[in-house]
Amino acid sequence: MFDDPSQYTTEDKLRARITLHARFSTAELPWYDWMTRLVNLAESESVLEIGCGPGDLWDSMAPPGGTTILLDSSRVMISTAARRTGLPSLVADAASIPLADTCFDVVIANHMLYHLSDPGEGIAEAARLLRESGRFITATNGPGHMQELDKLTGEPPILPGFNLDNGAALLGRHFGTVTLHRFSDGLRVTDPDIALQYLASYRRLSPADVISIRAALAETIERLGHYRVTKSMGAFVCRNPIQ
Ligand SMILES: C[S@@+](CC[C@H](N)C(=O)[O-])C[C@H]1O[C@@H](n2cnc3c(N)ncnc32)[C@H](O)[C@@H]1O
Question: Which fold is adopted by the domain 5-241?
Answer without folding.
Answer: Rossmann fold (3.40.50)
